[in-house]
Amino acid sequence: MLKSFIVPMAVACLCTVNPFAHAQAESNETEPINVMCPIGKEPVVPGAGTVEYKGKAIGLCCPGCGKQFLTWDGARKDEFVALAVAHNEPDHDRHAGGTTDAEPWTDSFSLDTCPVSGGKLGSMGDPVLKVYDGREVRFCCAGCIGKFEADQEGYWKAIDKQIVKDQIRYYPTETCIVSGEPLFENGEDIAANVVYGNRLVRLCCKMCEREFKADSKKFIDELDEVTADAQRTEYPLATCVVAGGALGSMGEPTEMVVAGRLMRFCCAGCEPKVKADPVKYIAEIDEAWQVQGKFMPTEREAHEGGRSHGDHDHGG
Question: Residue 120 and residue 59: Cα distance in Å, rounded?
């Protein structure tokens, strides 16, 4: 009698538990797979809802982001889903409690004057190199460092303005490096000039600024490729800018982009010399281009609507 009583109870318990397990599984399928919104690059907000793609729930930071995500092509959406599932989406670690050991990217400080005194770098001996939040800056002497640190906001703003004016003449494309959208509309320059790690990057909108900063190294690499392709054909030197030897005399020339300028070398061993004294080699490249009548200092000026320090990033 006892045995016949226990068995039905066990069956009843199984029947009671299974529906709850099924309901929980359905709930899990609607949980977002991502921590960061693919559009806004901000943490997912539960109240913003989700959008479904191939059976996966994509979390958003605001309701309007779902429509924009669905306009992405399939390959881009698939890439985002794969990264999210692997917990490797941009900025995931920063907002999920993890850490990253990646070093901030910075280009060499390319201006030839001290940001504090205005004097020529090298006029008082070797320039003094300092790095702030991953971004390089050089001074004519150690005495200028304290003044700079007392008003970093003001000095960075002035530096960024000079960098935009200097590098815009070399900028290789009239489309946004992130979205591919045009930077000119009805003949008007509508780009946002962002200085990132001493490099000018021209973007079409705030949305692209967020996307750029979420994966800046990727877009800097793409910008370098576009720059090299644009300048390589008519490159003004047949010799290594550092060693002076004929390009190709030691095998395939190596290349790097500094301050928006392509530089070509006889070998990789010459590259560190440019990083140690960028102003010297930038001046040589500028002179060589100007002999050809190209990239003249007055050829292009930064438009007033462009942003520099207000949207600058030290490289981190």
Answer: 52
Tokens representing 106 are 């910075």
Q: Encode pLDDT of 250-264 as tens digits.
A: 889 999 999 999 999
What DSSP character marks residue 245? P
- Could you tell me the CATH number of the domain that includes residue 246? 2.30.170
Q: How far apart are CA 222 and CA 22, in angstroms?
A: 47
Would you say residue 12 has pLDDT above 70?
no
Tally of structural domains, the chain: 2
User: Residue 227 falls within a domain, yes or no?
Assistant: no
With respect to residue 73, please indicate whether it lies within any of the assigned structural domains.
yes
Of 74, 101, 128, the residue at which a domain comes to its end is: 101
Q: SS3 letters for 73-103?
A: CHHHHHHHHHHHHCCCCCCHHHHCCCCCCCC
* Domain end point (choices 101, 122, 143): 101
Tokens of 150: 């007392």
Residues with Cβ within 8 Å of residue 63, at least 6 apart in sequence:
48, 49
Angle, helices 216-232/206-214, rounded to nearest 10 degrees: 100
Nearest by Cα to 257 from 297, 217, 218, 226: 226
Closest CA to 85 of 132, 23, 10, 31: 31
Determine the structural domain holding residue 248 and report its residue range. 234-291
For the chain, the maximum distance between any two Cα atoms, rounded to a whole number of angstroms, is 107
For residue 53, the one-letter residue type is: Y
The closest alpha carbon to 261, from 293, 242, 289, belongs to: 289
Mean pLDDT, residues 22-47: 69
pTM over 0.70: no
